[in-house]
Automatic annotation (TrEMBL), chains A, B:
The gene is aspS. InterPro entries: Aa-tRNA-synt_II, aa-tRNA-synth_II, aa-tRNA-synth_II/BPL/LPL, Asp-tRNA-ligase_1, Asp-tRNA-ligase_1_N, Asp/Asn-tRNA-synth_IIb, AspRS_core, GAD-like_sf. Residues 198-201 are annotated as: Aspartate. Keywords: Aminoacyl-tRNA synthetase, ATP-binding, Cytoplasm, Ligase, Nucleotide-binding, Protein biosynthesis. Its EC number is 6.1.1.12. This is Aspartate--tRNA ligase.
Length: 582, 582
């Protein structure tokens, strides 16, 4: 038996017990006559003591030769510590070692195994097994497990059945790119790895499973943007005999439950907002509503006052920045430069200070009277002490730019508190979205999403205006989930494929099995999927997902630890009937 | 809202309530003046009633036009049934329908949606979404979910952390064949899908995770034997600072827990048996110990009595078949023919009847006296009324043949009761196994398995005799799990790769990251993996795994429902820098 207790377990109540511990050497302090060694495992740290009065000489020498991250086993007596460490759960005691075994030595680790490490990202990834020993990473992985168990138990208690759908499926050119898998037994043919289990979960609904979920890996062979992974995990759900309202209620319940159980946070209001409103009020379909600074459209107030810059624009929109009337010229210039950067691409920023004394002062005083500015203040909800910022231009662009500025300001003003949680449903997404490049409509969610019945007639005349039964769950400005009520009849599904530019032959070749299934009594159904990596990171109070993934890949899709992907030898390629053509 | 209740929910206590149900038409009985419709969902079946006195004429006509598997929604009043059906949980009531909506029609399903269907295997697979509507399949999938939740909750409570390991890893030529995945971003390079997360779980132990588990898909591109799938699910576990005994105890606990919670079965004895004993007593490394018929080696008793057939053989071994002394000559001939079939390949079978009256009669009375036969009876443990069957030949072959006969007889005698559970640890497996084809030793478990310290010295002189710290969990004659204590130092691991015929360069290229990790304080560790598909099937009392997998592949590795794998178009191949060469 390698241990009687873990390194995080012993307390004053254990004093005088004989114990056995195993773990890693965290720290050594050698005073010559006395050596203290901190021994660490997943559960904590315990101090060992060797001293020349009580420890055999040979063991003193062994202890003196220990290095960081050596693996040792010790037996000894739990004794009271002279100088207690209240920071440490085991800080009341130490172990007077009587037996000592070196289980494994260690080379000097390439970075320090501490909460704050000196290792850079790349080094940490190459030696991820050492990085995982660090508390922040280890705890992130344990936190992920806790969230996963919580989700599973909640959904299971709600009557959902976890069903494993296949990983070796069929390639579909729709949407982002599939990873493919050559089949040795079926020469010249390929499987694809799922981008999501979408069609399978719909088939499970046709199969009467009623409530399905799965925490499942999905795959996307896309150029990796920051914080995207080629393999990622989804909480995938689907329900039969439901309307949008039923789904929102169930997953509002899950979100409340997670926040309560995991974070101890009770959510009061759980608002719903249409996509149109979100765009109008926040310039964004995943607004962070932990703070205000809502958009005010000012066209009626600012046009026709002789200020050409505004007169020419499609949309003029402003926000009130709380307490920022005191910003210096330099601070405001910094904001103007920030929005002019190519990443944002705005032409500039008009400002108006609503001073504490009630007076108003703007960068466009030449065109606008104090009365005009008072109207701006009213419209943006500015109070004395606030700074009003106004942008103008094409509607979509201006909203995007002001949304970025709003988030930037919130971060600067400390309004994005990682321990505050403000969930929100965004509903009534457009069904279709125009793609300038291919000059046709694409499915905004995916081609299985149903149009709102009352908008169906617009499909012929104004497809871009058709709203879908589609919804996103937004948490603190992040889209963490999204879904829709699906089409469940063959005719509508065929029509949708037609709108999306599929020929009937293509639709049949790729989704024939689903359309066939719709002919055998498909029930009304819908569902959603949460991005599990993102959800865990946000619940953990982090912006990036990488430390919540045990073995992530880098931005080139490489695992630098195992050095994958790599070349295959000719023999292996031959068996797969493949040739590489660079 | 599509329903107020499910189709399995209503009881006599609901009588007079107005309810809404949705589901599939299971059955229609049309008496003209009265129509009964059974409506089905995941939760059960409820009877609807339409009658000409109480139902509007138009609705009667609609009801009359319903077909099997149509999807309907009805509102109505719960009323007491005239002739109750005690077989059905909802059998006390029926619904007098007042509103009726056809949600979706259905073509006539290609096979009946009943517990016993008229559909053949291939048809059921092609329309798997209809097959899943059948109770046996639906319940198997729900049972799988229940077992999965149980395993997760048990291991989580025992301090195990579920960590997701990557699916896009590195190809290793060792063992069965990898599925590979070309990388678009890394031209000419490939990932591999994991055959198991073996190296990653070991790295998690190096990373201090201490106790890891994962219910995870694994992949093997092998020619499919019966009841194998190219993708399959494992319960994968690993622990640090453990010896074999610790692992056996934990997973004995899991097995007991599952049998108690899932099957209501309390396991008394949980025996351990060495591999050598299992081979000697059952001719098999996964013995079914629900019944006796243990092997008795009879060399000393049968040789030198003038019966040449036995004198020449390496091993003579017998079993006592309970109550089979009454077998007719014809029955015994059938057994002899059974073992002579090419699948078994035995030369024959010697028999001796130990009659109820105590007399003994054999097929070799010419050579063996009643006294000799009495000694056989004693050695095989035969009682009056039993039949002794004896085979001889080369040790390995004879054991295999008699083991097959033992299982055949047990099935014939009804000794393999699916509701009885007899788990067993088989321990001390050989480390290496000689492969006649390649003329070298292979790892019996895998190359990371540690030899027993006391056998290490035999590695140089008699490698085949070295025992490993490896163990299998056997349940009712099926291997459901296996594992080992791993090597955790670089030197031993390098030596093992050497024994297995890897050059140092090959070992480094394929497993360099693991050997490097061993240099940074790798703890002693070990683990095991359960075959989840098999475990669920056995707990479910079934021999085959296919109905416990939602969307299985056929023996050619094809999903006949979605028609995968399939060809890629040229464009897609070009992007992957690949060419198919048939």
């Amino acid at each position: 038996m390698y241990r009687s207790h873990t390194c995080g377990e012993l307390r004053a109540t254990h004093i005088n017990e004989e114990v056995t511990l195993s773990g890693w050497v965290q720290k050594i302090r050698n005073k010559g006559f006395m050596i203290w060694v901190d021994i660490r495992d997943r559960y904590g740290v315990t101090q060992l003591i060797f001293d020349e009065e009580r420890t055999p000489k040979e063991m003193m020498e062994q202890a003196a030769q220990l290095g960081r991250e050596f693996v040792i086993q010790v037996k000894g007596k739990v004794i009271e510590r002279e100088s207690k460490n209240p920071q440490l759960p085991t800080g009341d005691i130490e172990i007077l070692v009587s037996e000592f075994t070196l289980l494994n030595a260690s080379l000097t680790p390439p970075f320090t195994i501490e909460n704050e490490t000196d290792g850079g990202e790349e080094l940490r990834m190459k030696y991820r097994y050492l990085d995982i020993r660090r508390n922040p990473v280890k705890e992130s992985l344990m936190f992920r497990h806790k969230v996963g168990m919580n989700v599973r138990n909640y959904l299971s208690q709600e009557g959902f059945i976890e069903v494993e759908t296949p990983y070796l499926i069929k390639s579909t050119p729709e949407g982002a790119r599939d990873f493919v898998v050559p089949s040795r037994m079926n020469e010249g043919q390929f499987y694809a790895l799922p981008q999501s289990p979408q069609t399978f979960k719909q088939l499970l609904m046709v199969g009467g499973m009623d409530k399905y979920f799965q925490i499942v890996k999905c795959f996307r062979d896309e150029d990796l943007r920051a914080d995207r992974q080629p393999e990622f995990t989804q909480i995938d759900c689907e329900m039969a005999f439901v309307e949008q309202e039923d789904i929102l209620n169930i997953f509002e319940g899950l979100t409340r439950h997670l926040l309560r159980d995991i974070k101890g946070v009770e959510i009061g209001d759980f608002p719903r907002m249409t996509y149109a409103d979100a765009m109008k009020k926040y310039g964004n379909d995943k607004p962070d509503i932990r703070f205000g600074m809502e958009f005010a459209e000012l066209n009626d107030l600012v046009k026709g006052k002789g200020f050409n810059v505004f007169d020419e624009q499609e949309l003029i929109v402003g926000i009130a920045v709380p307490g920022a009337a005191s910003y210096t010229r330099k601070q405001i210039d910094a904001l103007i430069n920030w929005v002019k950067r190519p990443q944002i691409g705005a032409n500039g920023l008009i400002w108006a200070k609503y001073n504490e004394d009630g007076s108003l002062k703007s960068s466009v005083d030449k065109f606008y009277s104090e009365e005009d500015l008072t109207a701006w203040a009213k419209e943006t909800g500015a109070n004395p002490g606030d700074l009003i910022l106004v942008m103008g231009g094409n509607t979509d662009t201006t909203r995007t730019q002001l949304s970025a500025l709003r988030m930037h300001l919130a971060t600067e003003l400390g309004l994005r508190n990682a321990n505050e949680f403000a969930p929100l449903w965004v509903v009534d997404f457009p069904l279709l979205e125009w793609d300038e490049e291919t000059k046709r409509f694409h499915a905004m969610h995916h081609p299985f999403t149903s149009p709102k019945p009352e908008d169906k007639k617009l499909l012929e005349t104004d497809p871009g205006a058709v709203r879908a039964n589609a919804y996103d769950l937004v948490l603190n400005g992040n889209e963490i989930g999204g879904g829709s009520i699906r089409i469940h009849d063959k005719a509508t599904q065929a029509k949708m494929f037609d709108y999306l530019g599929f020929t009937p032959e293509e639709a049949k070749a790729q989704f024939g099995f689903l359309m066939n299934a719709f002919e055998y009594g498909a029930p009304p159904h819908g569902g959603l999927a949460f991005g599990f990596d993102r959800l865990v990171a946000i619940l953990g109070g982090q912006e990036t997902i990488r430390d919540f993934i045990a073995f992530p890949k880098n931005n080139a899709g490489r695992d630098v630890m195992i050095d994958a992907p790599s070349k295959l030898d000719e023999e292996q390629l031959k068996e797969l009937h493949l040739q590489v053509k660079l």
